[in-house]
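Task: sequence design from structure.
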């Protein structure tokens, strides 16, 4: 089972986002039969089979095991991944694209960068999996609390200078066998935790 599967096919995305099918995917973290799932989700087994067939057809669940009970065969299915992300490529020409954004300081541009990251890395992971290769990546995730807007601006300037120096040091356009990498650095305010309402 994959940790995360990026869904690139629009039809598969539609199937995965249907509420009952999404529920079945979450129930299939461990192999289960249609009969077992029917009891868990409160649907007739035939209805569950219908949904499972759609999920299996789009590669979102797979056969884990077959058990024979007398003259019957029970199929146990399992989700193809622990969780799923829909790639912007599933949206075709209306997908977010940072090349269409004008204001590079806007939240829309940051969202478009995130969308491109999912699309690009999702495709790279799929191809690496198909060829049995490992995809080398780097991610840094941290939090910083600024005392003031002036400190935030100073941090941004210093970070930009540091990245510019590093890129100048290591970038080699003509290196034989070299491979270009995309470096994206983003910062955004953390969502504020909503305070619990006091009883009236």
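Answer:
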């Amino acid at each position: 089972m994959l940790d995360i599967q990026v869904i690139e096919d629009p039809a598969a995305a539609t199937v995965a986002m249907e509420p009952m099918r999404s529920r079945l995917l979450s129930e299939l973290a461990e192999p289960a039969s249609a009969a077992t799932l029917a009891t868990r989700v409160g649907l007739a087994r035939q209805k569950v089979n219908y949904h499972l067939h759609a999920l299996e057809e789009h590669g979102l669940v797979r056969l884990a095991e077959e058990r024979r009970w007398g003259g019957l065969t029970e199929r146990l299915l399992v989700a193809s991944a622990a969780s799923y992300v829909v790639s912007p490529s599933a949206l075709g020409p209306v997908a977010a694209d940072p090349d269409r954004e004008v204001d590079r300081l806007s939240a829309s541009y940051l969202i478009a960068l995130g969308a491109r990251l999912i699309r690009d890395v999702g495709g790279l992971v799929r191809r690496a999996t198909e060829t049995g290769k490992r995809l080398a990546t780097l991610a840094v995730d941290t939090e910083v609390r600024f005392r003031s807007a002036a400190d935030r601006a100073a941090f941004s300037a210093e970070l930009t200078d540091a990245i510019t120096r590093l890129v100048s040091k290591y970038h080699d356009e003509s290196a034989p066998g070299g491979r270009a990498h995309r470096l994206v650095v983003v910062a955004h305010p953390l969502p504020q935790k909503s305070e619990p309402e006091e009883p009236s």
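The first helix runs from residue 10 to 17.
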